[in-house]
Amino acid sequence: MFTIIIPTHERPILLMRTLESLIAQTCQDFKVVIVSDSAGYLPPYQHLNQLAGRFDYVLRCSGTPGPAASRNLGLAIADGEYILFLDDDDTYRPDHLAKLKARLSQDQPELLFHDFQVQNEDRTVNPPKLLPGGQKISIADVTFDSVYVRNRIPNSCVAYRRDVLQGVRNETDLIIYEDWDFLLAAMHGRQLVHFDTDGVVIHKSAATAPENMRRGNSRDDKIVEVMLQLYRKHPGPNMETRLTRQALMASAGVALDLSHF
Q1: I need a labelling partner for 199 at 20 to 30 A (CA). Which of 115, 125, 249, 258 fits?
Q2: Is 47 strand, coil or helix?
Q3: How far is residue 216 CA from its own chain's centroid?
Q4: Residue 18, number of CB atoms within 10 A of its CB
Q5: What residues does the Glycosyltransferase 2-like domain cover (predicted)?
Q6: Which distant-in-sequence residues (6+ apart) come within 8 Å of 62 by Cβ?
Q7: Regarding beta strands 158-161 and 82-85, do their DSSP bridges make them parallel or antiparallel, or are they unpaired?
């Protein structure tokens, strides 16, 4: 049913927690593809043994650093009916895949997105300490058109039917937002369907903490630049979307020529 692609980079403790959440799933109809771009530590053999016959652990020794190239390598060997992406520091609630499978089996949607939970934690201790302030995030108001303006759908909250991803790959040259670019490419000519479930848990530590290791935290200066790049690559599907893009950029002091965006 599912192939779950996990790019990882030198976060063995967090990766083990992610794998534990997969081992605990009430639905085990999945295969895992883990792509590491570093040989700095041994694979988590104890956890992988519990997924015997249902995992690939790939060491990527070439290509552009970062998760985009690792996700592409995972896509090259993925064979599930649906493709899921999961970051190496995030987890699933135990019934997440069971609920997702039941919904996808109804009408086999091309692109299904869903809500999620945010869990704050302190990563200066080992293992990370969960902090108060977790919350459920609904993105039910996200529409096909709104994704062309700004993306509020986390990469781990989309189920891609495998045939939708023929020819779609992550752009390895993007500084940030490669997941947004990937989603827009997959959306061309497709339908985007929301599912009311929140079984993905996105774990966050302080944005400025070195142990957080999320690239986007330190690239705020590139947000407008990359958004303009994506606007050019993926023109708005209608005039209303283009006007909304124009208004958003105007609030940042940037004038858009609607004929190009």
Answers
A1: 125
A2: helix
A3: 13
A4: 25
A5: 3-165
A6: none
A7: antiparallel
Encode pLDDT of 143-200 as tens digits: 999 999 999 999 999 999 999 999 999 999 998 999 999 999 999 999 999 999 999 9
Is the pTM higher than 0.70? The answer reads: yes
Quote the CA–CA distance of 169 and 206 in Å, as a whole number: 30
The pLDDT, as a whole number, for residue 215 is: 45
For residue 24, the one-letter residue type is A
Band (pLDDT 50/70/90 cuts) for residue 65 is: confident
- Name the residue among 41, 34, 16 with its Cα closest to residue 127: 16
- CA dist 215 and 226 (Å) reads 14
Q: Are strands 111-114 and 91-92 parallel, antiparallel or unpaired?
A: unpaired
Q: How many residues does the chain have?
A: 261
Domains of the chain (ranges, CATH numbers): 2-207 (3.90.550.10), 219-261 (no CATH)
For 76, residues 6+ apart whose C-beta sits below 8 A from its C-beta are none
